[in-house]
Each structure stands twice: as structure tokens, then as C-alpha cells.
Write a structure and sequence with these properties.
The chain has helices at 193-196, 297-307, 316-321, 354-358, and strands spanning 13-15, 24-31, 36-43, 52-53, 77-78, 81-82, 85-86, 101-108, 111-122, 125-128, 146-150, 152-153, 156-157, 164-173, 184-188, 200-203, 211-219, 239-247, 253-255, 269-274, 277-284, 292-294, 330-335, 340-345, 365-366, 368-369, 372-373. With 377 residues, it is mainly β. It starts with 12 loop residues before the first strand and ends with a strand.
Length: 377
């Protein structure tokens, strides 16, 4: 299954007649090249109990090596997951899906240093933990240059694709502290996912009971193993563990009994088999219990909107829902700072006239139609 993702301009269209009393979240956008931080309010998406997911793509490079879909032998378990070993012992690092795992490295002068882990979720999009790249308030970015190396193993790239630089980073939070969600979307300056592929992302509904999954963690540990201080990792090897993780209805997180994470594993995916391919249900956040963050619906929908392909019309979903498809409907256009810059008529088919869109200032814009968020070319 393939969903093509590109990076056109973004608009937010708010129908005057639409009313919403939902909690508002903030989207922070860091433009690395400009060194600029912008923010805009996005509407909360109610948790309706649905499983939300995006598509996966195996890439144009040859090679697929599926990960185990059954639990490891009892002797190999440490808690509920297998003991961590180099990924090459279980799979080909250059094959899908292992090659979608990325080492995040910080550029310092002419060298790079190990940082965190990430996973490709689009042609030029990756998911990682927010604390890997963002500081605390006012959400300062930690470094000028982050690079993502897919299929990084044995201190080198295992595919012809070397790396891509982080171009922008997107952070969504409902509070002044990102850590409870601790998820960030990275936009890259090259479509490396076209060749190596990507996994989908999944937003799970609240759990009334504990749901077990056989899941896979691919990561780049880069510090001392605090459960065995004689062992030290350098961030130059892709490591792997798998087994049962569970969704707790208490903290809405994925955890692993008795597992202890290692610095550098932050941002690594909790990956499961999904619709013939693979998808990540969480990213690693904390070392104790391998605590990871499940993606709330608001973050999922916002990230999906940012990645979604440009539209010829305002929103195909809008046309189906007929939310604003009536004579006289007005759309208010805001820029990324939340400043109102235009009011445009919405046509009876639910679309804004192309000529009206072309007349808008050439700058990144956001727009919301009721509770629909969609990207426009």
C-alpha cells in the first residue's frame, strides 16, 4: 500500500457558522534554515474510539525482510521483550522495514555525533520524541543541524541513501509542557523515503482493558546501559528487541515490564505488522519500563494534515460532509501566527475559487474548515 506525500502550502479555513467548544491545542513550527519559531492554534480532535492509521510504502529499493510475528523463546526474554541484540542478527538492515529506522545525528563542524532514534513515516517525514530536538519553554530548538541516517549500521549507511537534513520540526501540545505527549514530526530536505520506504502511524483509542501486541523496537542506543554499566553503546549500530508490549488505560502508553531503555533509544518506534506492511503505534520516551507515547487523535490528525498531498480543491472530505457547501458561506484565512489576513467566499461545492487562493500572500498559511484540516497547493 502506498500513500504519496508531498509538501505544498498549508491553509486553515474556518467556516463562520461552524461552532466548536473543543479544547484548543498549539502547533509549534520551527524552521531550521530561517531560525524562526511560529505557532498556531489547532482544534482538538475528540477521541471517538476509532483506530486512525496512515499508509506504508516499502520503497523503490529491493529487499523486504519481515520481522518475527510470534513471541521469542522464554529463554530469550527480559521481562516481556527479548534481550536487545544487533538487528542484523534477526533481519537485513538494508531491507524493509528495518531500513526505515533512522539514526538522528547532530552536526558539529565537520563531524556528526549520536543523538536519538527516529522512523520514517513518509517520503520526507520522520517521527521521533520531542525531547530529542526541542528544549523547554519557549520551545527552543537544541541544534542548528540534525541529520537522519536511514539503515545506519556498523558506522555506515547500509543502502545507497546516505542522509537527509531536518528542514522543519512540528510540535503539537495542549499544555505549556510538551513532555506528556513528547512527539515531534520532522520534515526533511530530501525525499529519502521514496527509496527506503516508510511505515504508517497509528492512533489507538483509549484502552478499557490491556491490549497486548507483538511489537518491534529498532533503535540506536548511544550511552551506558544502566542495567549493566560495563556495557556502552556508541549510536553506530542498529539494535533490535521484540516481544509483547501493552497499552495501559492508566497512562495511555506502551510499556515493557522489566525493560530498561538506554540513551539514544528515545524516538525509536514501537512497530507492529499492519495491513500487509508495518506501522508505529508509539515512540520511545523514557528508559524505565521502556515507556513510550501513544499518539492522541489531535496529534495524529495534525501531523497527517501537514504531510498530506496538496489538493486541487479545498478539501475532498469537506465536499462529502457538505459542512460549508451552501451559498453565502465565508471562510476566514489566518496566517501561521493566528493573524486574520483575508475573508473568502466558499462556493456551493465547498471549494474556494482558485483565483481567490492565488491572490493570497505567498506565505505559509493554516486553515480549518469546521473540524477538517487539509492542505492546499
Amino acid at each position: 500500500m502506498r500513500v504519496r506525500l508531498t509538501t505544498p502550502l498549508v491553509f486553515t479555513i474556518l467556516c463562520l457558522s461552524a461552532t466548536s467548544h473543543a479544547q484548543e491545542w498549539k502547533l509549534y513550527i520551527h524552521d531550521v534554515a530561517a531560525g524562526r519559531l511560529d505557532s498556531v492554534t489547532v482544534p482538538a480532535v475528540p477521541d471517538d474510539g476509532q483506530v486512525r492509521s496512515s499508509g506504508w510504502f516499502a520503497g523503490t529499493l529491493p529487499g523486504r525482510a519481515d520481522l518475527p510475528d510470534t513471541m521469542p523463546a522464554e529463554a530469550d526474554l527480559l521481562g516481556t521483550m527479548s534481550r536487545m541484540v544487533p538487528a542484523r542478527r534477526h533481519t537485513s538492515v538494508s531491507a524493509y522495514p528495518a531500513r526505515t529506522a533512522c539514526a538522528i545525528r547532530v552536526v558539529r563542524d565537520t563531524t556528526t555525533g549520536a543523538s536519538c532514534s527516529a522512523v520514517l513515516i513518509g517520503d520526507r517525514w520522520a517521527l521521533t520524541s520531542a525531547h530529542c530536538t526541542w528544549g523547554q519553554l519557549p520551545f527552543a530548538f537544541k541544534s542548528d543541524t540534525y541529520r537522519l541516517y536511514p539503515a545506519w549500521d556498523d558506522s555506515t549507511s547500509q543502502t545507497p541513501v546516505r542522509y537527509a537534513n531536518v528542514k522543519r520540526a512540528y510540535l503539537v501540545t495542549d499544555d505549556h509542557d510538551y513532555f506528556p505527549m513528547d512527539l515531534t514530526l520532522l520534515e526533511l530536505d530530501a525525499p529519502i523515503g521514496e527509496q527506503v520506504g516508510w511505515v504508517g502511524m497509528i492512533s489507538l483509542p483509549p484502552a478499557d482493558t490491556v491490549h497486548p501486541f507483538v511489537a518491534h523496537r529498532l533503535s540506536y542506543p548511544a550511552t551506558i546501559d544502566w542495567s549493566d554499566t560495563n556495557r556502552r553503546y556508541d549510536g553506530d549500530t542498529l539494535w533490535y528487541r521484540y516481544g509483547k508490549v501493552r497499552q495501559s488505560d492508566f497512562n495511555q502508553a506502551i510499556d515493557c515490564d522489566e525493560c530498561i531503555g538506554i540513551g539514544g533509544e528515545s524516538g525509536s518506534p514501537v512497530m507492529i505488522r499492519w495491513e500487509g506492511g508495518y506501522a508505529t503505534i508509539a515512540t520511545h520516551r523514557s528508559m524505565y519500563g521502556m515507556l513510550s507515547v501513544v499518539m492522541p487523535p489531535t496529534i495524529f490528525e495534525t501531523f497527517l494534515s501537514i504531510m498530506s498531498d496538496g489538493l486541487v480543491s479545498v478539501d475532498e472530505r469537506l465536499t462529502a460532509q457538505r459542512d460549508c457547501a451552501w451559498p453565502g458561506a465565508i471562510a476566514i484565512i489566518y496566517n501561521v501566527l493566528g493573524e486574520r489576513i483575508a475573508s473568502l467566499p466558499v462556493q456551493a461545492n465547498g471549494h474556494i475559487a482558485p483565483s481567490d487562493l492565488e491572490a493570497l500572500p505567498m506565505q505559509p498559511l493554516w486553515a480549518v474548515v469546521g473540524e477538517c484540516v487539509k492542505r492546499v497547493r
